[in-house]
Amino acid sequence: MRLIACLITVLVFFYLLEKPIKKHATLFYIATIIISVLSVLAPKKGLPFVIDYLVKNILARGTLAGALFILVMVASVCPAAKLRGLLLRTRGEMAIIAALLTLIHNISYGKHYFVALFTKISDLDAPRIFAAVLSLVMIVLLIPLTLTSFMVIRKKMNPKKWKSLQRLSYIFYGLLFIHISMIFSISIAKGHLSTLFDLSVYVIIYIAYLICRAKKYEKQRVLCILFMVLICVLYIPIAVMGFKGSKTQKENVTTEENVSTKASSDAAYKDGTYEGSATGYSGQMTVSVTVSCCKISEINIVDTGDDEEYLIDAKDVIPQIIEKQSTEVDAVSGATHSSKGIINAVAKALESAKE
């Protein structure tokens, strides 16, 4: 749904501000850079809910940039004449703004995943390694594509060479879909069907684009059909994995909630340090619980597959558990699965403390 909302917002924005954007494009680029810098420097906590949501879920996750890239991609084959005209007139500015916004995504996630890729690759699973490598390749492609989108540079280039260079964008769009699929597959494998819905939206858009392209360019029909088949080959196993994961997740949640309730029924624990694991958002969540004087005194996250952006908010349940001396606390809104993972992992650890 976030992608759909971003697509609509971008279309309305460019429709209403087409003339100012064309006339004062540099000002909009500067504004985009400022937004990018502020988003990267924004505090992890303490922001108003709306701003926090926009920074974390729309800008940092690359949803807005992705929406812009999609509109640039479909511009030449859009079947609606008026919409096609708008997209063709503004796709240069869209592409540059999308590239500048991509900085937020690359810095927000790259400071962890790129660093791990080159320093401690064992911390990353296969989908994350593949996604990180694809990101680096896309950055290499995006640099010349973005620079040559600026009119001052484009005017100095030979038209044929410029057009030939811009064909690299099709490789970029293909890699973008694979990158998104790899990232989403991690969550989908854990049974999060809302993420499967998000991926399905991308699949529908890409297939619709290829159908429109096949209709417009007869010589490319076989190639378009081949790419549609490849998309389905990638998507179907992920979808099947998602439905299986959803069933498993429901069973695990029921078991973990029973353990949590059981752990909360008795506040007397043996002194010591105990570990427990439960399902977080992207995988197993392992915590260490220290009991002193028969009470919970310290809780630390030992290992997790969840992204730092969710853990920052999810960790709010830790002081609540210590204060209440119970796992019967509410999950954190916006980090529900991660915070539940912490709660249930603590409950598992406390089960050992009662033995």
Could you write a compact summary of the structure shown?
Helices cover 72% and strands 8% of the residues. It has 15 helices and three strands.
- The structure class reads mainly alpha
Estimate the helix proportion, in percent.
Answer: over 70%
Number of helical segments with 4 or more residues: 15
Overall mean pLDDT: 86
Largest sheet: 3 strands, antiparallel
Distance between the termini: 46 Å
Overall structural domain count: 2
GO cellular component, one term: membrane
Organism: Lachnoanaerobaculum saburreum
Keywords: Membrane, Transmembrane, Transmembrane helix
Protein name: FMN-binding domain protein
How is the topology of this model organized?
Layout: H1 2-16, H2 18-23, H3 25-41, H4 49-59, H5 63-74, H6 81-119, H7 126-147, H8 151-154, H9 159-166, H10 168-189, H11 193-216, H12 221-264, E1 272-279, E2 284-292, E3 295-304, H13 308-314, H14 317-324, H15 336-353
Antiparallel strand pairs: 1-2, 2-3
Write a structural description:
It holds the Pfam family FMN_bind. The chain crosses the membrane at residues 25-42, 62-81, 93-109, 129-150, 170-189, 195-212, 224-243. Keywords: Membrane, Transmembrane, Transmembrane helix. The chain is mainly alpha-helical and 355 residues long. It folds into two domains: 2-246, no CATH class; 266-353, Sufe protein. Chain: A (Alpha-Beta Complex). The protein is built from 15 helices and three strands. The protein has helices at 2-16, 18-23, 25-41, 49-59, 63-74, 81-119, 126-147, 151-154, 159-166, 168-189, 193-216, 221-264, 308-314, 317-324, 336-353; strands at 272-279, 284-292, 295-304. Strands 1-2-3 form a three-stranded antiparallel sheet. A hairpin with a 4-residue loop joins strand 1 (272-279) and strand 2. Helix 1 (2-16) packs across helix 5 (63-74). The longest helix has 44 residues, at 221-264. The mean pLDDT is 86.
